[in-house]
Amino acid sequence: MNALWLENNQISLRDVPPPKKPNEALIKIRKAGICSTDLELVKGYYPYIGILGHEFVGEVVDAPDESWVGQRVVGEINAVCGKCEACLNGRRTHCEIRTVLGIVNRDGVFAEYTTLPLENLHRVPKPVSDEMAVFTEPLAAALEIQKQVQVKPTDRVLLVGAGRLGQLIAQTLSLTGCDLRVVARHEHQQNLLTARGIRLITEEEIQPRKWDIVVEATGSPDGFDLARKAVRPRGTLVLKSTYKGDLNVNFSSIVVDEITVIGSRCGPFEPALGLLENNEVDPTVLISAEYKLGDVVKGFEYAAQGGVLKVLIEP
Fold first, then answer.
1. Rounded-to-integer distance, Cα 109 and Cα 28, Å
2. From-to residues of CATH 3.40.50.720 in the chain
């Protein structure tokens, strides 16, 4: 089968054997999405060799339980052992020996087929199109913020960054009724937000030390610095970015101001699918382009350009 292979910071389309793992479902990919993590992996953010990609919607073609065959599915990216201390104590996404789809020791979805354990799969409701369903994983990541932090209508919330994930974070936070402002640098990003009634703010307009909750979603040191200066004493700083290299952070000021710092990544799939089914969010407005798997390298080149949001890949 055709697949996008990453090795030595180089990507190429290869012909590889179809995946086959005991006790896992074989899934034919219908659509897959390029995210910022994929682009950072190509740059060397994390040492990975194999097939890239972790955002997908597909169809089960073979499974240990035949009732899954023919089902349209999305899948959680962490495959866990269920036996280690983290798993047994309810921290399954932090399994000590987990593999991660297209990221850690598990081939991903920029291919014709992939495999996952049945426990990772979620059926896609019929009203949810493939174009919507492919966003389930990043939408779930956006919703993880509200699992970790109680966001109240009275909260002043600042979101720094309005890229691929930032747009979904903005849409989900706006549903809470909080006093939300978003820093968005690109005109297209700004237009998408204002079309949904989400208010913008420039960096110059941000009042320092006044925001109850600040979400950093740029992945840049400058974005972190802006977010840190904005959060009020005893406020909450949520980090939705993975940073390459080290950040220069004044931890004394975090201690003195009693700031709560929360790292946030994978999130709940069923609530995400529920939002999609009820049309409470619309991720399809983020689609910038769609490429066939045979042109996936070109798709990556386009996705890496400034201001481009979601690029989809279809086998």
1. 9
2. 139-263
Q: Can you say how many angstroms the Cα of residue 147 is from the centroid of all Cα atoms in its chain?
A: 15
Q: How far apart are CA 251 and CA 248, in angstroms?
A: 9
Provide the β-strand partners of residue 182. Answer: 159, 200
Domain boundaries for CATH 3.90.180.10 within the chain: 2-123+282-314
CB 135 within 8 A of CB 55: yes
**Side chain identity, residue 99:** T
Kindly state the helix (H) or strand (E) to which residue 90 belongs, with its residue range.
none
Annotate 111-156 with DSSP letters as a single string.
Answer: BSEEEE-GGGEEEPPTTS-HHHHTTHHHHHHHHHHHHHS---TT-E
- Nearest Cα to Cα of residue 286 among 179, 213, 184: 184
Domain covering 2-123+282-314: architecture? Alpha-Beta Complex (3.90)
Task: State pTM to two decimals.
Answer: 0.95
Report pLDDT digits (tens) over 302-313.
999 988 999 999
Q: How does pLDDT run across 85-120, given as a tens digit for each residue?
A: 999 999 999 999 999 999 999 999 999 999 999 999
Q: How many CB atoms lie within 10 A of CB 20?
A: 10
User: CATH topology for 139-263?
Assistant: Rossmann fold (3.40.50)
**One-letter identity of residue 79:** A
